[in-house]
Amino acid sequence: MVNLKNVIIAITVPLPSIVFYLTFLKSSSQSPPLSTTNDAPHWLPNLWTWCTHHPLLLANLLFFFNIDILFWLIGFVQSSNWMIDLYWTVIPVMLVHFYASHPFARADRARSVAVVVLTWVWSVRLTHNYFRRERWEWGQREDWRFSDMREEYGRHWWWISFFVVYACQQVFLMGICLPMYSVHSSEEPWSICDFVATIVCVVGIVIAYFADTQLYDFTRKNEILKELGMPVEPNLEKGLWRYSRHPNYFGEQLWWWGLFIYGWNVGHGWTFVGPLVNSLCLAYVTVLVERRMLKKESRVDAYRLYQKTTSVWIPWFKSSLKGGKDKKL
Q1: How many other CB atoms are there within 10 angstroms of residue 293's CB atom?
Q2: Which of 115, 172, 272, 307 is the most buried (most CB within 10 A)?
Q3: Which has the closest alpha carbon to 146: 131, 132, 162, 133?
């Protein structure tokens, strides 16, 4: 019953923004606009005009009211901020369609189609990984980092969570999705740089998929071994994880930096801020994850050795403790 309730919440929670935006699109496509009819409030023409000329601000306002505030209220009532993890995989898809369908939009069709399709592929991969990791349950737990902070901040967490969990997510998500806005605000023709961007995005998605799948298989294997009372493997050092301690993070960064290349190619180099902030955030998350690994006594020695011999992000040859290359490669 709890799971069904969370399913209903997750499906209905974005409806305020969706209904508002569809109403705006319908109004802007009418001739004369719905806002000029006798039954329309006198302030609607100004509202629709503002929405037409300020797509970025409109997207941020919808995010603020529908996610920052509404998600936070739901998380407060449920004592769990599980929904933001799920919507990390959905919001970029909503944003790319927002920018592509907005009356302000103008874009090279090939570039627009490439970005929309790749965003969907990225989202399907990440959504599948999320539900696979969560055993196909909706909202059974929140991110362990939020759970740790809930214990750390205690009775102050109810208001701190608004900024740490939601307002910060707006900065990250709106920032890394800026190239989607850039692509749909320029008719610069498709070029060789767009091919490069496409390749980088595809490679990033593929690397992240295989890295996450290998991690999932490793985790499931250890769970089975534990149930059978057999020793578990302390570290995952096979596949992509042999050459990088966080290949999933590396693949995710490739995707976002590849998306930036699309924005850079249409003259919006300033959009580098988004993937840069995301990379800095992942660097911090990497530190948190590795500290967590080192707290587990059963794997601390093996993981310290793993740290000394394996690249952090970028896949590279395994090193010996003396700094030389592993001759067994």
Answers
A1: 18
A2: 115
A3: 162
**CB within 8 A of 310, min separation 6: which ones?**
237, 242, 243, 244, 245, 318, 319
In a 10 Å sphere around its CB, with 0-12 CB exposed, 13-18 middle and 19+ buried, how is residue 38 labelled?
Answer: exposed
**Phi/psi of residue 33, each to 5°?**
-60, 150
Q: What are phi and psi of 265, to 5 degrees?
A: -70, -20
Q: Which two tokens stand for residue 181?
A: 């806005």
The 10s digit of each residue's pLDDT in 236-280 is 999 999 999 999 999 999 999 999 999 999 999 999 999 999 999
Q: pTM for the full model?
A: 0.91
In whole angstroms, how far apart are CA 249 and each of 15, 175, 256, 278, 327? 31, 18, 11, 10, 27
- Give the pLDDT confidence of 153-196 residue by residue, as tens digits: 999 999 999 999 999 999 999 999 999 999 999 999 999 999 99
**Residue 81 near residue 142 (C-beta atoms within 8 A):** yes
C-alpha 220/C-alpha 236 separation (Å) is: 12
d(CA 318, CA 240): 11
CB 66 within 8 A of CB 14: yes
Tell me, what DSSP letter sits at residue 241? Answer: G
- Which residues, 6 or more positions from 218, have their beta carbon under 8 angstroms from its beta carbon? 233, 236, 238, 241
Half-sphere exposure of 28 (CA within 13 A, CB side): 19
